[in-house]
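tool_call predict_complex ligand=magnesium ion
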Amino acid sequence: MVASVKPPTAPPHPTKITPKMLELTKENRDFLLKLHRQMQFIRRFEERTQEQYTKAKIGGYCHLNIGEEATVVGGILPLQLTDYIFTSYREHGHAIARGIDPKAVMAELFGKENGTSHGRGGSMHMFDSDLRFMGGYGIVGGHLPLATGGGWAVRYKKEKDVVFCMFGDGATNIGAFHESLNFSKVFKLPVVWFCVNNRYGMGTPVEAASAVADIYKKACAYDMESIQIDGMNVREVLLKTSEIVEKTRADSEPRFIEALCYRFKGHSVVDPDKYRSTEDKEKFRKADPIVAFEHELEKAKLADEEYFKKVRMEVDAEVQDIIKYADESPEPKVADLYKYVYADEWEERPELHGDPL
Ligand SMILES: Cc1ncc(C[n+]2csc(CCOP(=O)(O)OP(=O)(O)O)c2C)c(N)n1
Ligand SMILES: [Mg+2]
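tool_result ok
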């Protein structure tokens, strides 16, 4: 699969993040405000997605990123467009941050023909091979061996791309997690393992499911560099992710990041979220990654409440247009039911045969 993906052309945003770029200065204002706007856009996109679900415009499973925006934007942005991304099912925001047209993301949610997967996948299966967005996956941890295979392909072809694999805390308790980390280390695969620790796997807190509560320590068993970062702070996520990704690009050693955060809504849109205390929710609400970033921008006199209000209104209008687009988009045709089930053509790549290492 990875071998036949076309290399993309121009990157839509700066990829190598330096500490200087993130300083709260006037010179960096445009970039910082873009970050803020993107997080705010994803937040609104998700809020409106929830609304559309309750109106039965969206069906199937549906998991939102609300509260995790700093890990979404901060995790995806430092990647180059030739890097490969694998994510879990909570991936609408990641697809948007990667540069997939949000209209195609919403159309996919609506099950429409012009969605990223022609409406066949829905919420958990955003995909864009041109942008090397290799999919959201519904089986917890099921994509980790696939990312390992992606890392193998990159090494096999002697390329300089990085495979970026995002998953939840719950995924670190399954066998495929350990096999994947072990394999990536033994064969020196350029994979960055990025764990979004939102402290819960459905209704189960990390401590009740994992023998090791500090998840980054699990990677130490495979002798790889592993760090724990503040997943509520977009500047920290960007910088640390960029550093780790570039190290992996340089030496093809796998590395591990654990980003601590919190999801503000239930596990999925139908979860009434009765298992978390009000105190806990309030505590984390106070650390809202968007509000925290707004405070930083305001303190540095780079923006004010009026500006933030304007952004909220603008992104909401954009999302409303996107919903209209998705709603008016065509349904897949019944006659096309079997289309996209099997690959149409097999690309012969004899140059790939040989000794990979
Ligand atoms: C192999 C497998 N087991 C169980 C499930 C049901 N399930 C869906 S999401 C989930 C929790 C996963 O939690 P985590 O990895 O922390 O990700 P989060 O939802 O918090 O982003 C479970 C158990 C599944 N989809 N796949
Ligand atoms: Mg979780």
